[in-house]
Structure formats: structure tokens, C-alpha cells
Amino acid sequence: MSRQIIINSGIREKRAGILVNNRLEDVFFEQDTYEQIAGNIYSGIVRDVLPGMQAAFVDIGSDRNAFLHISDLFPMLNTDQLERWKNNKLGIQHVLQPGQELLIQVIKEAIGSKGPKVTCKITIPGRYFVLLPYENRVNISRKINEPEERQRLSKLTDKLLGDKYGVIIRTNAAGKGYDELKMDLDYLTHTWDEVQNENSKKNAPSLIYQHVGLIQQIIRDHLSDDIDKLVIDNHDDYQKIVRMLNRITPHLSKKIVYYQRKNPIFTVYGIEKELSRVLNRRVWLDSGGYIIIDKTEALVAIDVNTGKYTGKKNLQDTVFKTNLEAAKEIARQLRLRDIGGIIIIDFIDMTIREHQERVLAALSKELARDKTKTALLGLTQLGLVEMTRKKVREGYGELIQKECPYCQGTGMVVSEGTMSLRVIREINELAVNEDFSALYLEMHPRVAAVLIGTGGEKLAELEEKFALDIYVSGNDELHIEDYTIKKGKKEEMADLALPVKEGEEYRLLIEEKQLNNPEDGIARIKGYIIIIKGGGHLVGDKLNVKITDVARTFARAEITK
Questions:
Q1: Domain TRAM, which positions (predicted)?
Q2: Which terminus of the chain faces fewer neighbouring Cβ atoms within 10 Å, N or C?
């Protein structure tokens, strides 16, 4: 199995992708425009204590106060308070008071209108260990499943650390010797000493420790013996990585490759193309089936469909194979999009129990590859799969997109017909309350076409109804829900509206036949109708034409050679 790490290190953005057999399986971002503070340690000041929520808001020096729940106060609680908390008899007001200073760590970025979430349970991650400064327990990654290796690592850690601190032994520690493990632990304990020293010198609120950048995270968490190579397109960062690895794991430095080709690295490795698909609501499966991913405030809903896949045996076999393929792709999409929170999956209905179990097992196996904590809760009575994925920060879509200012996040805009009716209602209101002889309307060409009608008959009806001269102009740069109305004298409005003059030449697309005279064709310039003599049989062609006559609602033209 081929495994590669590809890093694009730009001026204002760093991106990393992990390829497995040349297929993108994980992606990570760091942008100057989006400050990531998860992992940072702050000296904070309690501003509000809310007994009803068993929580407090803590000032860490950012725009929004951080949220601290009583369950994250563990290091501050004495034995008596711990016992009372376990028996639901301890209120947060008994532990915290406004103005109190705390050493806290951000565990969840600010998302939407919510501020960051913090904890007093500080952790400092390294390559082989996660240091737990306030504890003295040793936990070993469940992915290290050989009893002899677990026992070896436990004994080595006890020898290196004693009972001063607690640690989590990470998967990367498997097979590593005393010197490598000691170097990592020394680094972590030294970092904690620096945190305590900084905290004693700085006034709250202030940043005490900043988490490492993206490239260092990738080296720490993802570069291992099973990676074939790491390719990076920035020479300075390439040299930094090699120097760092020569110091801590020299044999891995040989896997680092400096990318020197002119074409962008993410384009050459196919990552850019894959990232453009990550924004799509619909994800096609290789078989022809597809999944739909919809995000709401409360949860993420994922729907599985057979699509073009009809199978070769029977319906149940087709459904099973589609669901099996979808289970693998869903786990991958969760990683690529960094989707978190509650996730509901609507697989295609399976009547065979064995099929249900195998699809859930496949999903569970793929989720086990995710470094972000996930929990698969099983099937509901409606046949839906419930699961959760820890949400630490905004997902990829939220990072590079924002809510549409026109549809307000609904994904829908008003139709052309409805917009034309909206314009008519405003004309009616103006005509009742004000005195003028003509109107000039500017709007999106598709709305203009509906308002004018084929041959201008609908516009003529409006003029007759309101006893006004109405001039309509289309503007491609306007959003379909935007328009302007100007009122005044006929001559003034006519000068604004007419987009063509007699004798001018254009190259135009014949869009349709003229309703009253099918021998002639219809073209449009900014919604303004051009009737082209003899163009009725040339619909779909682009022709050179010359304007021969200009009227208020349309112009006439003849085909030129």
C-alpha cells in the first residue's frame, strides 16, 4: 500500500494531504485569515458564573469569552469537592468566583455564534506521548494491541517518568526504544515547565503557550515508518523538516522530498481536483450510486442512493453493495470535510440482517482510521445509523465558504417569474402615490425577459394598465433578486433604456422564433428584444446582424454577411 504526505506551503496558507494508493484520504489546512487556537493554553479571568448551566465564561483576551463547564474543572477540585460533584451536590458557584484567574486550554474552536470551549485538564501532545501534567496514570493506545508490547512500553514509561505526571502512550511509540521515548518525554516535561514559568510572569488574560503549526503537527502526528515519502514545495520548510528529523528520528529524514516542478503540487498529485468535489452536496460512488450530504444547525444528514447502479443479481444484492461502498466513502468524506457533531446516515433499506451487520462493520472499520474521536451508536427503529464525531473546529466547507448573502443559507433564490411580480407590485405602488410619465427598470436579463414577454406583449399590458411608458434594461452583473426603478419624463427614460442604435452591428445568438411571425428570430441584448428578419430557421446559431429600426420595447435587425 502506497502512502504519501503532500504539503503545499504558500504565502498565506499551508495545506497538507495524505494519499493512500494515490487517493486523497485526509486533508489539513492552516490559513492566515482564520486563527486556530485549539490547543493553546491561556491564563484567563472568570467573568461570569452561571449556576443554572453549571458553567462559567472566561476571558482569554479574545473577542468572545470562552465556555468552561464544571466537568472540565477536575484539577481544581479537592477530594471533598470531587465526591460532592459525583453525587450531583457541587455547584460551580462553590468553586469559581468572578475575577478568579485560571490556567486553561482551548479544546474547541469558536464556531458560529459560540465562543471557544476550554478546560482545566491540560494536555501537551508529543510524537510518542501525550503529557497529562495534573495526573499520574499511564494509558496506552488501544491500537497497540500486543500484550508484550503494551507491557514493555508501560515499564519503560514508569522508569522514565515515575509518578510525577501522567501520560497517554501514542500508537507511534510501538517498537521505539528507550532513547527515542526519553527524548520525547524530556521535551514534553520541559514544555510544561515553560508553561508554568510563563504563567507566573504574565498577567491574565494572556496567551501562555501556542500550539505548533500545521507542518509540525503533520510531522508529529502523521509521519511514520509506513509513509513512503513526504513531498513539500517550500525549500525553507523542507530544510526545517530535515533538520528537525535529523535531531529526533534521523531515518525518516530520507523520506522528505523537495518538490521543484513548475506546476502546482496539489494539481500534479490530483488533490486540487478532489478538494473541489469536497464542496459538492452529491458524492458519486464508483458503482454509479451516490450519497447526499446535508448540514443543518442540529446535525448532518447523509442519504445513500443506488443512482445509476442496477447490479447484476437481484435488488437486495444491489442495495447491499451500494451501502457497503457508501460506508467506506462516508467515513472518508467525514475526514476530508472535517464534519463533526451528530451525524445521521440513511442507508438504503436492507431486509437481510447479515447485510445490516456487515455494512455497520465496514463503517466501523473505516471510522477506526480516523484520528478524530468517533462513536458509532448503531441502528434506530427507523433504520437510521446514528453516530457522532468530535467537533474541534469549523469544517472545510465553513472554512472556505460563507453563508450566501442572497439566499441566507437556504440554497434557494426567488424565481424569475416571482421577481417579475415583485417588480409589478412596486410599479403599482409608485403609480398610485406619485406623478410621472415614464419608468426605467434595470434588472437581471432573465427577469427582464419574463417581464417583457415574447414580442413585448406583457410589457404592453403593463403600460396600458398603468398609463405609463416603461423601459426595461437587462444587466448580467445584477443578482437575480436585485433591480432598480427610476422615474421621470419619457425622453429621459428612453435615453437610459435603449441599448442599441440604428445602424449598429452585432453578433447575436438566435434564441427562439418570433411568436407572431415564426419566419423571424428573437435575440436579446440585456433583456432587450431584437427581432431578426428571416432568422426563425436559424435558432441556436450566432449571426452578424445590423440594427435597422429601434422602438421602445424592441429593435429590428437584418442578417449581414
A1: 499-561
A2: C
Q: Tell me 344's DSSP state.
A: E
Phi, psi of 228, deg, nearest 5:
-75, -45
Distance separating alpha carbons of residues 231 and 241, to the nearest angstrom: 11
pTM: 0.73
Beta strands 290-295; 282-284: pairing state: antiparallel
Mean pLDDT of the chain: 89
* Amino acid type, 252: L
Rounded Cα distance, 423 and 413, in Å: 16
Distant-in-sequence, close-in-space partners of 104: CB < 8 Å, separation ≥ 6: 41, 42, 44, 58, 60, 66, 68, 118, 119, 120, 122
| Proportion of the chain in helix, strand, coil states, percent, rounded to 5 | 35, 30, 35
Exposure string for 519-530, b = 16+ CB within 10 A, e = fewer:
ebbbbbbbbbbb
Hey, what's the cell of 313? 443479481
- Answer yes or no: is pLDDT of 449 > 80: yes
The tens digit of pLDDT for each residue in 52-101 reads: 999 999 999 988 999 999 989 887 787 788 778 777 788 888 889 999 99
**DSSP reduced 3-state for 200:** helix
Residue 527: how many CA atoms within 13 Å on its side-chain side?
Answer: 28
Amino acid at 473: S
How many angstroms separate the CA atoms of 426 and 143, rounded?
67
Going through 365-514 in order, the beta strands assigned E by DSSP cover 374-379, 385-389, 438-443, 469-474, 483-488, 505-509, 512-513
Tell me the C-alpha distance between 399 and 393, whole Å: 9
Burial degree of 440 (CB within 10 A; 0-12, 13-18, 19+): buried
Inform me whether the pLDDT recorded for 142 exceeds 70: yes
The total of other beta-carbon atoms located within 10 Å of residue 185's CB is 20
Q: Cell numbers of 124, please? A: 501537551
Closest CA to 222 of 369, 22, 123: 369
Q: Is 435 exposed, middle or buried (0-12, 13-18, 19+ CB in 10 A)?
A: exposed
Separation CA 297–CA 342 (nearest Å)? 10
| Chain segment 475-528, per-residue pLDDT in tens | 888 888 899 999 988 888 887 878 888 899 999 999 999 988 899 999 988 778
CA–CA separation, 73 vs 490, rounded Å?
74
**Amino acid occupying residue 439:** L
Burial 461-496 (b: 16+ CB within 10 A, else e): ebbeebebbbbbbbbeebebeebeeebeeeeebeee
Provide the edge-to-edge strand list for the sheet that holds 469-474. Answer: 469-474, 438-443, 483-488
529's enclosing H/E stretch is strand 528-533
Is there a contact between 169 and 157 (Cβ–Cβ < 8 Å)? yes
CA dist 451 and 81 (Å) reads 72
Neighbours of 341 (CB within 10 A): 16
Tens-digit pLDDT profile for residues 345-396: 999 988 888 998 999 999 999 998 888 889 999 888 888 999 999 887 777 7
